[in-house]
Prior knowledge:
- Helices cover 44% and strands 18% of the residues of chain A.
- Chain A has helices spanning 2-24, 29-32, 92-109, 134-140, 256-271, 312-324, 347-394, 401-430, 435-471, 474-506, 509-512, 524-532; strands at residues 45-53, 56-64, 76-83, 116-120, 124-130, 147-152, 160-163, 166-167, 186-187, 191-194, 215-217, 219-222, 225-228, 239-242, 248-253, 277-280, 283-284, 304-308, 331-339.
- Chain B contains 10 helices and 4 strands.
Amino acid sequence: MRSWRARILLLVVIGLTALSVITVWPSEPDRYLPDAVPWPEGKGIKLKVPVIEGGTFRLSTITRRAMSLGLDLRGGTRLVLAPEEGIQVEDLDAALDGAQDVIERRVNEFGVAESEVNRLGDIRLSVQLPGIEPDEAIAKIGRTALLQFCEPLTDASGNVAATEGEVQYRAQTCDPVRDANDEIVVTGGTIAFVPWARDDTPQANDNPQPDEIVWQPATAEIDGQTNTLDGNYLRPNTFVRFDDFGRPTLVFQFTSDGADVAEQVTERLSERNYPLAPYLDGDPILDSNGLPIAPRVQGTISTDGVITGLDSEEAQDLSKLLNTGAFPIPLRVVQQQDVDATLGETAVRDSVIAGEVALLLIMAFMILYYRLPGVMASLALVVYTSLVLAVFKLWPVTLTLSGVAAFVLSVGMAVDANILIFERMKEELRIGRNLVAALEDGFTRAWSSIRDSNISTLITCAILYWFGNQFGESAIKGFAITLAIGVGVSMFSAITVTRTFMQIIISIRPLARRLWLFVPDLPEDVRREGRRMPAVAGGADGAPRERR
Amino acid sequence: MRDRPAGFFDIVGNRGWFYLFSFLILLPGIISLIIPPRLKLGIDFSSGSEFTVRFEQPVSKDDLHDAMAGLDHPESRIQGTGQNEYLVRTKELRGAGAAPPVGPAPTSERDAIEDALQARFGNLADSEGAASPDQGFIDFSSISATVSGKLSLQKDPPFICCGISGSAVSAVAAASLAIFVYLWWSFRQVPQPFRFGAAAVLALLHDALLVVGAFSILGKVIDTEINVMFITALLTVIGFSVHDSIVVFDRIRETVSRGEGRSFADAVNSSLLQTLGRSLNTSLTLIFATLALLLIGGSSIREFLWAMLIGTTTGAYSSIFVASQILVSWNEGDVPRILRRMVGRREPEQLETAGAEA
């Protein structure tokens, strides 16, 4: 029975390890491994994993090509943000501080861990983001992300302004620029006011298209004040829902103040069936066909609203941007560049090779000192390393130097668990117990110290993570996550993997009979006795001889 | 009744010497921590200057770093940003002093660095790559600290006062408290379980103090600065210290709960001897790993690895020679006894008070 269990476990372990090795295999193996061997090139991994999004199950594909590495090991993209020209703010300092907070929230939300946000001079922000392309960095982190609801400009009789030309809008808004005579500036065309037909009339097809309409911010008069309906009135709890056909819908809620504004705006627009278009930073939000989203308002909306027609990924990103809030003032990217690793170009290669040498040294030591169990522990260490690295890659954990340190520490702890077990096992063998009993006892007795030390490490990790989060100190956070993963996997590797290997080994008679493979310095009387009785017989409750 | 070997293997009996040894190795660090500047904060923790520099001729990053180190800025963080172009972050560069009433204005540190780099690597180019003899740094600007120790979620930090060092201290304090409580609970079968928690935390503080002290001394002697790597190394040391203490304590717990009528000190001594092999082997594996990184890994993380090496060594030492000895001292009432010896003969009531206070 026991042996069957061990064999099944062994297959599981081998399978898991193989999967992990495939997952973490580098795309340029020659950089890290001796180049005498023609290593195959890694191609990264594509996995389909079920995820729950907006209450429905879907298969989401995750693609991992390379390990995600931090700014210190690989570099990334640097953005410099500055206020949009012509913006007047009372307290620029506070506004930039606010923007810095928003960036930090977005960095967390989009999982671009280990980023740096600095104030650069008096009026700029510098953001360094690891492992992300400039375009993506701007789209996710570097934009103001102010959602604005825009309505068509109309004349007194309700005709909608339309033009063939390009209307010039104020920076990051849908507010048309007007010249000294209060005329809207249009290049390459003129503005004409055309009648607007309701949706249910045949003339509706002749209505101007969204890209022909001249837009303006949707406003409402409340208590004599003009309020523009924008993202500031949204609760930070938007989410994406998928309908039965897998089409995404962005669901949002207005705050109580926003509800009043939204009610007035939609009531006014619904009378004539005007469209209402969501704009983000002065650009219309496009649907999955690349056309501006501008649904006609059918009824009054006060508390909840939806945006439909978006591409799935865009909907997710937009929801995250809305939830993390907009910059307090419109900022634009004034500079973008690739930056390389802060620790030097060879940092990754050097540390990988150093890590390999360290692992080999540890294995050599374990084999020389603990003999056959040491070989098993070394195999377990290979399993451990590939599993942890696979978790890092799939999670994905952004590895920085502090992560590497945590990994080294967790390797030490994993080896320590094996050392504890083997020392116990040797003690049991020395007092004359048989192999099976000694193995079982080694594991049972070492368990309490492995458990206590690992739990206290996990507690420390939790506290460090919390502190790192509070202080915006990503190195501490990264350290805590890496160490926690390492410790978690080490429990599995030191206990399950090594134990399985050992059980398989002691079920092989020619090996199990040679006790010197397990304990180098067995007392003479025990050795003699061991030779007389079969090593494997007796079972786990084999009576111990006198205990010291 | 003593039931333990004499000589070196009587670890418990020699605990006075181990305390003295710990005190002696901690003392220089403590003195150095009292004398300002206690620790030199690196560029991660202080605001500084940032600029882009572009050379006409090819210049390697290592050469540029060398040059900056030669100009009294070994802390410079250099990132390549394109063809012969580097983004450099340094400590705050001193500006020009007030112009004297007569004579030429003194050059600022920025000018001095620009001149020195030009002298060594040839003319600097402007952002378009065009040569111009008068060109200096592109986009020279001040930059805020990367790690300000501020709470990003709330504006008013509830119990933190003083930036990064305050936050590091609170993190260590919180972790210590949690470890203390967990060990208290985990060792509940043994009499006075809270002693185990307290002893582990004291050993942890011993190790942390040794590493911080070592860096304080290095800061004074060779200008070693505290950066994010140092914080990481400190965390690693703390993690290892607790891990190691617990493994030793676990053996003590087992020996004590097996009883067999021996004194607590004897039980501790035999537990230490039993775990000595394991403690040595575990420390050796970690030291191997660190040494490998130290010898092969890049020079940029050398200080970090030294911190790890010091920390793992002291972590293994303190679990046996500090944490376990504190348990014994506590049990044997060493502190009241020493106090008694120091204050001389007193009335019994006063002795009681002295013991309770200790």
